[in-house]
Design a protein that fits this description.
43% of the residues lie in helices and 16% in strands. It has 27 helices and 22 strands. The strands form five sheets. Strands 1, 2, 3, 5, 6 and 7 form a six-stranded antiparallel beta sheet that branches. Strands 8-13-14-4-15-16 form a six-stranded mixed beta sheet, sandwiched between helices. Strands 9, 10, 11 and 12 form a four-stranded antiparallel beta sheet that branches.
Length: 697
């Protein structure tokens, strides 16, 4: 049974989630306090035995909660086996392929709805149910002679239906033995009882529960098919030495009085999980502790089982886990690295490893054990931040684990990490946002319409294709030249003016413009591209920091022609903005800030205002003017605001403020870039990629 739609209402911060479609492996992405955890926990209300707490009901919906509200509801599609099972048990009903489960604030039980299926609610005496079976027995007993009837104890048939085959068989056998003893002098009575007792239709596996068709169907689904939501949120850490004396006390419900317990000893659960994966029986260990050879043999077998179960989810070099018994009833967890050539190194206690390693090891042990112990099959797993503290490589290992679980289960999880997003199909990726004014969580099925900041991990994940394109040699060697710029403004200007000039002789079409995150990322980004076969150039301003970047590129075997500084007619320019005529740029500044700073005394700037600052470039001069007006509330000068204004006007073809001289100065920049590319092609030989990139195994 798979959840396909759900809705949550009046639960904690969620007024109404709306109807949400979900897939088999669905990620919930959202900022802190957006409601991701609340969504997962609300879905557990659909568990059969879950209790609704008054504290979980939304305080802001007291009026609505006076009426009956569906707090959580889910629409489930049945698997083929489940469809056939219902058809076998209820042959008179149409084929049931879909079921809706819901829990309200006024009914303590989960309720069921069946799409477009009419179900009788009146008592059906022909129904092969426990209630009708019990009624048949009691009616049979009522016609017995009084001297027999008063001796027979009917409490087994007066109570609720037995929950297991074993309880049914033992109850029936006990009653039958009692009946034979009482009616031993009445062979005809015994014969009639045997017909009822041995009737195949009266076997436990054939008996339903309920007096009507509707109640019988609901009870059967509740006992046999009801989906199970399993919520994981607390991933505890395992430590290197385990005091088995304290573990036994904790297992029995005691709390050892030690500082270790207060600081870190919530070990019972994690140790139980460790031993469960290793299939290590404490009683068996207790029996061989005094025999070193038997103890070593037992622990070696347990260690090998544990290692086999952990390595499939462990990315990086494989590890081997040894469980060792030490004096003082201490069990040590010893980890070794296993290399591809079979050598084993770095053997030592788990305590010696880095915190990230210990957390990763503990997560995999706890999660694998809990899911296996629950014999999860056709369950819905709800995971709250399953990859926190994990390195991206290990997160990808967890993705394999989740994908495997999603084969026989449905997995819904909350995450902040782009490395934990595996599927961008709507329904398999959902965004949760919080409306801070109303304190309501909203879920986006069309996640691209969510807030940009919420989308940050998704956007990083979507750009993994760009990363792949960097590290693919075939793409690099067959691609157009790459020009890396220091800021997003540089990229916007290059692309916008290329369109604006419409000059085929200097078009940027042969180029891919890549904006670095910041200046510190220019040099490594250029090296990454160069190392994977791209003809790579870097466009730099004339700051000291950019000059250092150029020197670092040369020291990393870049040719000097690959570092392009802003210049015009042999004169160095401070920034790309200096290719724009001063009057043209000030028009954009005045238009932008006249509105923004109308109440802060802003007045239009003139070229005379700029000349008085004695700056080498326009941007630095404007920053000086803004610094002088900081107390007036002008804030910081944002040259990207001006970039957006100019590029937007180019897009709208409202460029009357841009002079021909500005166009000519930008043409000189494109000519400079084209000339450097020609120079590079004349002097550069075919790149030897093996010089720049380590050979792949």
């Amino acid at each position: 049974m798979r959840l396909r739609k759900f809705r949550v209402r009046a639960y904690r911060c969620i007024h109404d989630s709306g109807e949400i479609n979900v897939g088999d492996l669905a990620a919930f992405v959202g900022r802190n306090e957006s409601g991701k955890t609340t969504i997962l926990q609300a879905l557990t209300l659909l568990n059969r035995d879950e209790q609704v707490s008054e504290l979980d009901l939304c305080d802001e919906m007291n009026e609505e909660l006076k009426e009956e509200i569906r707090l959580a509801e889910g629409e489930f599609n049945l698997g083929q086996h489940e469809i056939e099972l219902l058809k076998e048990k209820f042959p008179g009903l149409p084929e049931i392929k879909k079921i809706t489960l819901y829990r309200t604030n006024q009914n303590p039980k989960v309720q069921y709805e069946f799409d477009e299926i009419e179900l009788r609610e009146d008592n059906d005496e022909g129904l092969n149910s426990w209630e009708n079976f019990s009624k048949q027995i009691l009616e049979f007993l009522d016609i017995l002679p009084n001297h027999l009837r008063i001796q027979i104890d009917t409490k087994f048939f007066d109570g609720p239906a037995p929950k297991t085959q074993e309880l049914f068989d033992s109850g029936m056998a006990e009653f039958s033995n009692q009946f034979h003893v009482i009616a031993i002098q009445e062979p005809k009575v015994v014969e009639e009882w045997e017909k009822i007792y041995e009737n195949p239709e009266n076997q436990f596996t054939n008996l339903l529960t309920g007096e009507s068709e509707k109640s019988a169907l609901q009870n059967f689904i509740s006992s046999e098919l009801h989906p199970r939501f399993v919520y994981f949120s607390d991933y505890k850490k395992i430590y290197g030495n385990i005091n088995l004396n304290e573990y036994v006390i904790e297992e029995k419900g005691g709390r050892p009085d030690s500082i270790e317990f207060i600081e870190e000893f919530d070990k019972a659960e994690t140790v139980r999980n460790l031993f469960y994966l290793a299939e290590l029986d404490m009683k068996e260990l207790e029996g061989v502790k005094e025999s070193p050879s038997k103890c070593i043999k037992l622990l070696n077998a347990a260690s090998n089982r544990l290692t086999r179960k952990l390595n499939p989810a462990w990315k990086g070099d494989p590890i081997h886990v040894d469980l060792r018994y030490n004096p003082g009833n201490i069990m040590s967890v010893v980890i070794s690295d296993v290399h591809k050539d079979g050598t084993i190194t770095n053997t030592g206690l788990l305590n010696r490893r880095a915190e990230g390693f210990k957390w990763t090891f503990s997560f995999i042990v706890n999660f694998a054990a809990e899911t296996q112990r629950a014999e999860l099959k056709e369950a819905i797993l709800l995971l709250d931040e399953p990859a926190r503290n994990l390195h991206p490589t290990q997160q990808m290992g967890i993705s394999d684990l989740l994908s495997d679980l999603a084969g026989s289960n449905q997995v819904l999880y909350a995450t902040h990490s782009p490395f934990m997003i595996f599927d961008y199909t709507p329904g398999n990726l959902l965004v949760v946002e919080l409306d801070k004014r109303k304190h309501l969580s909203r879920i986006f099925y069309d996640y691209w319409n969510a807030d940009d900041k919420t989308l940050t991990p998704i956007l990083y994940g979507l750009c993994r294709g760009q990363v792949d394109s960097i590290v693919d040699r075939e793409i690099g060697t067959n691609s157009r030249p790459i020009i890396i710029v220091e800021t997003m403004s540089d990229s916007m200007y290059l692309n916008a003016f290329d369109k604006f000039l419409q000059d085929p002789n200097i078009s940027m079409n042969p180029l891919n413009v890549v904006a670095a995150y910041n200046k510190n990322s220019v040099m490594p980004l250029a090296i990454f591209y160069r190392n994977h076969g791209y003809k790579t150039f870097v466009l730099l301003d004339n700051s000291e920091e950019s000059k250092q970047i150029s020197a670092q590129l040369v020291s990393n075997e870049f040719l000097p022609v690959q570092a392009i500084f802003f210049e015009r007619e042999g004169k160095k320019l401070e920034s790309i903005e200096d290719y724009i005529v001063l009057d043209d740029y000030l028009h954009a500044v005045n238009q932008t800030y006249e509105i923004k700073l109308r109440h802060e005394g802003f007045s239009n700037l003139t070229p005379q205002d700029m000349s008085s600052k004695g700056s080498r470039g326009m941007v630095s001069g404007l920053r000086k003017i803004w610094a002088e007006h900081r107390e007036d509330g002008w804030g910081e000068f944002d040259n990207e605001e001006i970039t957006r204004y100019i590029c937007e006007k180019i897009t709208l073809e409202e460029t009357s403020f841009l002079s021909d001289r500005t166009k000519d100065q930008f043409r000189s920049l494109y000519r400079l870039i084209a000339e450097r590319i020609r120079q590079y092609q004349n002097v550069a030989t075919k790149p030897d990629l093996d010089r720049f990139q380590k050979a792949k195994a």
